[in-house]
Design brief:
498 residues; Aldehyde Dehydrogenase, Chain A, domain 1; single chain; Aldehyde Dehydrogenase, Chain A, domain 2; binds nicotinamide-adenine-dinucleotide; alpha/beta; six-stranded mixed beta sheet
């Protein structure tokens, strides 16, 4: 069987001691296996990145940018192949995979601007004949650890910008859908990246733990579930590394009584069920303000959901595909069961969808649950499946309190026609990314992405301007060139310009 290996120092490396099955979630069958890197393999990748660092650090930013320009073109030329790889291992329909890839490419486009982004600040005459400037220097070897749900986009939140900043990189993708990630790394190599600047090691906790503890790794970017994010953040910090660890989510949409209900329903359909709800920005809770709004919302959603199509990635007319594994399918179904047992009503039931020709696939149909309360387990925890839960409240204040009380604070949205209400909401809500009549407010590549509360551990958000800050350290230099023969006297006071 085909084994997905590693990319180390510009060369594909295979390893067979420990492997894991990779599934095609639409058929439910094993399509290949992925090598799980040993400690020695990860150390080899770190050594390659360390060796490549001095030359790459001193490569002019404009030359680094040119590689990124070529990389963007290669990604675009290979888009269909990449989307097919995503579909086969993740299950995403091609239109959705194309969206993920495009969002990834936009991060490469941002990295193309690195000569401008790395410009420092300069002040002449901070003192008599004294000039001062700040510059942004790379950190060294940095690592990225990424989740299954965006096998190309999330890695591209990290390595293009980190590398453009002058760092070298070791990436540990998700072991559940590794092929497209490995392929986009190979394309960067093809674009002219020197060997060792980007290395990919596939693997599990064993590989991750090496990245978290090896002193040659200076910073770690992580995206995944909250329990693992917390572990990554505390372990990386304990080992003296800079770390940003993005975690899970429970994103609420407030539906106000004055909302354009047909538009809100359309937006919610895509944001709740697109990518089978396996997005950290998926809207998984609709908070309806007032029973009239709730009844209208539930009625219209129920009707609209009749025409949704769940199926295999090979048919682009499908709206969304399977979830990632059989275990995850059971977990999602378990949350629907528990909501029902806790007294909520399952208005549209996706527990046993019929997908002709794909009976063994890991499918869950779009599910709508009404009457959910904050005490229910299905409300408190991230489901990460095509399930929209409706919570009924009496006021916007109550809706906002609900959101603020939730442990996660990744994304949120309000559907309303009232500008004053929307402005108050965006100003006060304790969530990192806010949409106003925009259901998936994922920041574009030249802003930065990050949640609040237990959706992000660390100070800096991912990509965009915060990405540049994360992957560089500021150095401030103060210089004086006294004329020949001029000597300063001794001064024991703190120097000032007074
Ligand atoms: P996950 O936490 O299971 O895995 C993420 C990465 O961590 C993978 O590379 C995996 O190999 C590694 N990992 C898993 N268990 C580990 C352990 N015990 N020790 C060390 N490393 C370990 O996440 P997932 O299931 O792949 O992805 C889905 C999760 O990611 C969801 O919770 C989702 O909300 C979250 N996510 C968050 C964002 C965000 O930006 N906040 C974006 C995408 C996904």
């Amino acid at each position: 069987m085909n084994i997905v290996g590693h990319l180390i120092n510009g060369t594909m490396v295979s390893e067979t001691d420990r492997v894991q099955d990779v599934y095609n979630p639409a058929t439910g069958s094993v399509s290949k296996q992925v090598a799980l890197a040993s400690k020695a393999t990860v150390e080899e990748a770190i050594a390659a990145a360390q060796a490549a660092y001095p030359a790459w650090r001193n490569t002019p930013p404009i030359k680094r940018a040119r590689i990124m320009f070529r990389y963007k073109e290669l990604l675009e030329q290979n888009a269909d192949k990449i989307c097919a790889m995503i579909g086969e291992e993740h299950g995403k329909i091609s239109h959705d995979a194309a969206g993920e890839l495009q969002r990834g490419i936009e991060n490469v486009e941002f990295a193309c601007g690195i000569p401008e982004l790395l410009k420092g600040d300069y002040t002449k005459n901070v003192g008599p004949g004294i000039d001062s400037w700040s510059e942004l220097q790379p950190l060294g070897v940095v690592a990225g650890i990424t989740p299954f749900n965006f096998p190309t986009m999330v890695p591209m939140w990290m390595f293009p910008l980190a590398i453009a900043c002058g760092n070298t990189f070791v990436l540990k993708p998700s072991e559940r859908d590794p092929s497209s990630t490995l392929f986009i790394a190979q394309l960067l190599q093809e674009a002219g990246l020197p060997d060792g600047v980007l290395n990919v090691v596939n693997g599990d906790k064993e590989a991750v733990d090496v990245l978290l503890t090896d002193e040659r790794i200076k910073a770690v970017s992580f995206v995944g579930s909250t329990p693992i994010a917390e572990y990554i953040y505390s372990t990386a910090n304990a080992n003296g590394k800079r770390c940003q660890a993005l975690g899970g989510a429970k994103n609420h949409a407030i539906v106000m009584p004055d909302a354009d209900m047909d538009n809100a329903v359309n937006q919610l359909l895509g944001a709740a069920f697109g990518s089978s709800g396996e997005r950290c920005m998926a809207l998984s809770v609709a908070v309806a303000v007032g029973d009239a709004a709730a009844d209208a919302l539930v009625g219209k959603m129920r009707d609209a959901m009749q025409s949704l199509k769940v199926g295999a990635y090979t048919d682009s007319s499908n709206d969304f595909g399977p979830v990632i594994t059989a275990q995850h399918q059971q977990k999602v179904v378990g949350y629907i069961d528990s909501a029902e047992q806790d007294g909520a009503s399952v208005v549209v039931d996706g527990r046993c969808p019929e997908v002709s020709g794909y009976e063994e696939g890991f499918f869950v149909g779009a599910t709508l649950i009404d009457g959910v309360t904050p005490q229910m387990q299905s409300y408190q925890e991230e489901i990460f499946g095509p399930v929209l839960q409706v919570v009924r409240v009496n006021s916007m204040e109550e809706a906002m309190q609900l959101i603020d009380d939730h442990e996660y604070g990744n994304g949120t949205c309000i559907f309303t026609r009232d500008g004053e209400a929307a402005r108050y909401f965006s100003d006060h809500i304790q969530v990192g990314m806010v949409g106003i009549n925009v259901p998936l407010p994922v920041p574009v590549a030249y802003h930065s992405f990050g949640g609040w509360k237990r959706s992000l551990f660390g100070d800096l958000h991912a990509y965009g301007p915060d990405g540049v800050r994360f992957y560089t350290k500021r150095k401030t230099i103060t210089q004086r060139w006294p004329s020949a023969g001029v000597r300063e006297g001794v001064n024991f006071s703190m120097p000032t310009m007074k």
